[in-house]
Design brief:
Helices cover 12% and strands 21% of the residues. A hairpin with a 2-residue loop joins β22 and β23. The longest helix is centred in the last third of the chain and has 14 residues.
């Protein structure tokens, strides 16, 4: 599966195109971007620079970048800044005009490092961890997640941090993190209970695919099942890879619903999304390793990227993404004019997967959000 933004509306996906050749300006424009407005979706235009010149990036909207001799240097932690995109570091943000490590609840922190700042929970570092809130403490949702203020093992329910329910405990399904990490509330049972993910065999009752070893649930019988074969006509899939604007545009043969993801290159023709019907195989070694380690060591509201960095498993996450990419049916490809700027923040360097801070910074600056459409995909 490829990475992509899940589509709910046409304007959530970026319009992208190549700039026409231009020798009337010196230096020429190599990147332009506009934001989402009442007139339409955000648009990105890319161009290539002459030899020995580099494309800078811009932080405000709308914006233009021109080719330049020197590469844009990111500012180190502790340096003055105006935008998050100017700061160098995986978790770097511009806080009070200074580049800092913006760390979330349960992340490793260093009290002797002035550049480590805990920004959620108690907003304090104690014994090497950013401290969260526990039972009864008032909590609020954040862009990073609805439970990020609470410690691991707690979730934010009705405005206060509440303990998550253990394996086998009865549950109501009122909150996606009601059960401890690695477990979900199985509402298909007569008495719903917290059930381990990827543990149910074919035919066992399940309210969601993530509980099944097959990672698929037949909604007609609310039971774990094998993925149905793709519907074909004239040797071409009817649904897989076709245009869509929302998940409901992507039905499978058994009435289950696939995911509508943004095309990586959309020039405005047709819908901005495509239907992705395949699901990840939870039995694959990389998938199992990351799922097991993240359940033990990561906060359930961390992104996959943040979790991978914290537990030193970037290479495993990259392997998972490469496996997803192989199965992707995205009908588009990134054009040559943009390949230097549209890049993954996990790249191959020296034969081994590792995080590229430069690439990550460019992604932040361009606003190219690669959101994983859940471990279900």
């Amino acid at each position: 599966m490829s990475r992509g933004v899940q589509v709910a509306a046409q304007d959530q996906c970026q319009l992208r195109n190549c700039l026409p050749p231009d020798d009337t300006q010196d230096p020429p424009i190599c990147y332009k971007r506009t934001g989402v407005s009442q007139y339409g979706p955000g648009a990105q235009s890319f161009g290539t620079c002459p030899a020995n010149l580099h494309c800078s990036f811009c932080s405000s909207l709308p914006c233009e970048s021109r080719c330049q001799v020197e590469k844009s240097e990111l500012r180190p932690l502790g340096a003055e800044c105006y935008f998050d995109e100017e700061c160098d570091g995986i978790f770097a943000r511009c806080l009070q005009r200074v580049c800092k490590n913006a760390l979330l609840t349960h992340q490793a922190c260093d009290t002797s490092n002035d550049n480590d700042v805990c920004v959620t929970g108690q907003k304090s570092c104690f014994r090497g961890k950013c401290q969260g809130l526990s039972s009864g403490k008032p909590c609020n949702a954040h862009p990073e997640g609805r439970d990020i203020e609470c410690n691991p093992g707690w979730y934010c329910f009705l405005g206060v941090c509440s303990p998550q329910l253990p394996r086998g405990h009865t549950c109501a399904g009122l909150h996606p993190s009601e059960c401890v990490r690695g477990f979900r509330c199985n509402l298909a049972l007569f008495s719903p209970k917290c059930t381990q993910e990827y543990s149910l065999t074919l035919g066992e009752l399940s309210s969601e695919a993530r509980l099944c070893r097959s990672n698929h649930m037949d909604p007609r019988i609310q039971a774990c099942a094998e993925m149905p074969p793709l519907e074909m006509r004239n040797k071409k899939p009817l649904v897989s890879g076709r245009d869509c604007s929302q998940d409901s545009d992507c039905p499978r043969a058994d009435t289950s619903i696939g995911v509508c993801l943004c095309k990586q290159w959309w020039e405005g023709l047709g819908q901005s999304g495509y239907c992705e019907l395949t699901v990840a195989d939870p039995g694959r070694p990389a998938f199992k390793r990351f799922w097991e380690a993240s359940g033990r060591l990561c906060h359930h509201d961390w992104s996959e990227e943040r979790c991978a960095v914290e537990i030193d498993m970037e290479d495993v996450l990259e392997q998972i993404r490469q496996e997803r990419k192989v199965k992707s049916v995205d009908p588009t490809e990134v054009k040559e004019c943009a390949k230097l700027l549209i890049t993954d923040d996990f790249v191959e360097t020296g034969g081994a997967p590792s995080r590229s801070l430069q690439a990550g910074a460019v992604i932040k600056a361009l606003g190219i959000l690669h959101v994983i459409a859940g471990m279900l995909m």
